[in-house]
Amino acid sequence: MSKGIFDGLKVADFTWAAAGPIATKQLADNGATVVKVESFKHPDSIRLGGPFIDDKPGINRSGFFADFHSSKLGIGVDMNHEDALEIIRPLIEWADVVAESFRPGIMKKWGLDYDSLRKINPRIIMLSSSLYGADGPWSRHPGYGAQGAALAGIQHMTGWPDMPPAVPKGAYSDSVSPRYALSAVMAALIHRERTGEGQYVEMSQIEATAQLVAPQLVELQLTGHEAQRSGNVKAGAILHSVFRCKGDERWIAIEIENEAQWAALTDVLGDAEALTAARAQGREALEARVSELTTPRDPFELMTACHKAGVPAGVTYRGSDLLEDPILDARDHFWPLHHEEMGTLKYNGPAYRFEKTPTELRFASPRLGEHTDQVLTEILGFTPEDLAGFRDSGLLQ
């Protein structure tokens, strides 16, 4: 197999939770050597959150952590130890990129702010990601994903008009911002290739997430109309909603944008006369009639019939559906990787394909401190005697 597109890139990864690790995962799965730094005193927080394999909690048993850390090496270093820089300084000298996603001020407390890093390695690129950004009046506030979606304007527009705003599942801003973080790091690497200069890349997760509401903000400025919660309604669509199907909590999404699609849907569902009459009565009547016709139908068979007829439709997949989906399977989306505690699990592969430099998920997520000895001896050049001294002092966790 060809080497990954980031082969040779070296990353010191101090990120935690989701926003930072998702970005560095893309580097690791595409060939970069990514060394994740944490400790048993201060493990990555999502190691402590489920789902856990076999519902048995454990520091190395979180599926949440696992999927964000494929292909990474993990070391355990107590960053609050007075001698932490004995290990971290050589790591910075080795690295091309340092990534962190703590509250602003934490890296400086450790002597690892950008001004300090570039004195150690003038070519270093540092990525800092936080909810509110590195400066501004709220920069030091702790922040979590639900706050990010709210402050970026997402939640106000999510839900039904007669109900309170709905919270998108999970830490929404943590899922959006890594895409911008990765692009920014790539731009900084291109700049360094041209000039030899490293630089500091700083990102606010709220500002990244606010990019998603750009059309609504433009509309507000042009027309004065502020976007409101609209449930499943889409302006201009003949039909745009999710409908119950046969089975326990089975649904199908159907979107009809033009008359050709409408005619095809009436053929698939049958009872064209009743559907046309319901359409004339308005959206609620139409959705009610469509639901009556979809409820006795198997969702997968109905989706197949819709596709054959040219009707945009999709089953609302569960996680178990995704793992068994023939389309994802045919594209080799999931990668089975073996983990010493969790066994073999399917990990999310890339959402893109490189023709010349294919992505390869090389190994499962690291157990905490799994690669400490390997990294310190093979990459940083410490001796076994050095490691014994570090352990005696409590520096290695």
Automatic annotation (TrEMBL):
Is Glycoprotein included in the keywords of this UniProt record? no
Alphabetical list of InterPro entries matching this protein:
CoA-transferase_III_domain, CoA-Trfase_fam_III, CoA-Trfase_III_dom3_sf, CoA-Trfase_III_dom_1_sf
Source taxon at top rank:
Bacteria
Keyword Transferase assigned to the entry: answer is: yes
Q: Recorded GO terms, molecular function?
A: CoA-transferase activity
Q: Which UniProt keywords apply?
A: Transferase
User: What is the name listed in the Swiss-Prot or TrEMBL entry for this protein?
Assistant: Benzylsuccinate CoA-transferase BbsF subunit
* Species whose genome carries this gene: Celeribacter neptunius
Recall the taxonomic lineage recorded for the source organism: Bacteria, Pseudomonadati, Pseudomonadota, Alphaproteobacteria, Rhodobacterales
